[in-house]
Amino acid sequence: MNITASQKAHVAAKVPVTVITGFLGAGKTSLIRHLLENANGKKLALIINEFGDLGIDGDILKGCSDETCTEDDILELTNGCLCCTVADDFIPTLEFLLDRPDRPDHIVIETSGLALPKPLVKAFHWPEVRSRTTVDGVVTVVDGPAVSAGFFADDPELVAQQRAADETLDHDNPLEEVFEDQLACADMVIVSKSDLMEGNALGEVLALIDNSARDAVEAVPVVHGRLDPELVLGLSSAVEDDVDARWSHHDDLDGEHDHDDFETFIVDVAAAENPLELAERVTKALSLKGVLRVKGVIEVTGKPSRLVVQGVGERVEHYYDRPWNDDERRQSRLVIIGLNGLEQGKIETLLRPV
Question: What is the extent of the structural domain holding 128?
């Protein structure tokens, strides 16, 4: 299709929006942090959504913002996935950014790790924002080692045993469905933590993505989110124009879905004496049935900086991100996300030292 000069000018007047999606712990925040630190004068605004009522990612990113993305440019939505709260939360937030006198050059949306990107992109059909924005691209961040380990796939032998015992059981895998929906909507796929993969593992993951993603969608191996921002923020895909052609598990339901397969809660813990001992407790919590992610900010006794702790699957990482502010309450809190039916008491006992 040929685009006229007037059409190009119209598109250029719109604020581009990049949707960054990916499962829990995939590396979305690391990628966005890299974008902030290498904005090259481009004024960015962030809308960050988390599953649960404690905004960890937004708090982390506020610590690395600068004149191109101040704390006022980072907006957090923590009362449900954006794909489910479009009218109540997302559209008003987007309008707030667009109405500012210092309107951003580019808006980046970090979805919850459980969000489906297609319903969110369809919100850009709303008259309030369609004439003022264009979805530059959907970027899906994939945890390479987790995919390689089969984190998003069923165990065929276990499923066969369950079916033999009860043919009426529903064997839909909610992790696999979210993963597949995030891939199917992508304009670019970033395979994170590629440095942790050995042998043929990376090639196998890239081949899987190639078979699952749309034609011509490129998968790029990345370490610590380090990728040229122009590649991420310059896809020019106008996703809102072809989003209906992008497949989703929920197409037959007219986009309706819920997150009843997942739940979240917060555990307040004491200041840590030893980060390694805390990481061991998080590792034990992650081994419990249904636990998918543990993430939070912790005070370490005698240390001036905050400790960020994140665990997904069998991996736990921790690092100091910034000093505590003088007027900041030094709370130590961990957010737990998992499949519905978590043993909350058992998890809390593991995470709180006796």
Answer: 5-253
Q: Are residues 226 and 140 in the same domain?
A: yes
Ordered alpha helix ranges (H), 246-303:
275-286
pLDDT of residue 178: 87
Look at the block and give the residue holding tokens 């007047």: 13
Mean pLDDT of 75-95: 67
**Distance (Å, whole) CA 127 – CA 88:** 15
Which residues, including other chains, have CB under 8 Å from residue 133's CB and lie 6 or more apart?
Answer: 14, 15, 16, 17, 94, 98, 107, 124
The answer on 190 and 269 residing in a single domain is: no
pTM more than 0.85: no
Domain boundary (198, 219, 253) is at 253
- Same domain flag for 249 and 347: no
Q: List pLDDT tens digits, range 120-129.
A: 898 898 888 8
pLDDT, tens only, 6-35: 444 444 589 999 999 999 889 998 899 899
Q: Could you give the CA distance from residue 5 to residue 10 in angstroms, rounded to a whole number? A: 9
pLDDT on residue 195:
93
Q: Is 258 exposed, middle or buried, given 0-12, 13-18 or 19+ CB atoms closer than 10 A?
A: exposed
For residue 11, count other CB atoms closer than 10 A to its CB. Answer: 13
DSSP 296: E
Judge if 182 and 121 occupy the same domain. yes
Is 89's pLDDT higher than 60? yes
User: How far apart, in whole angstroms, are the C-alpha atoms of residue 31 and residue 86?
Assistant: 24
Number of domains in the chain: 2
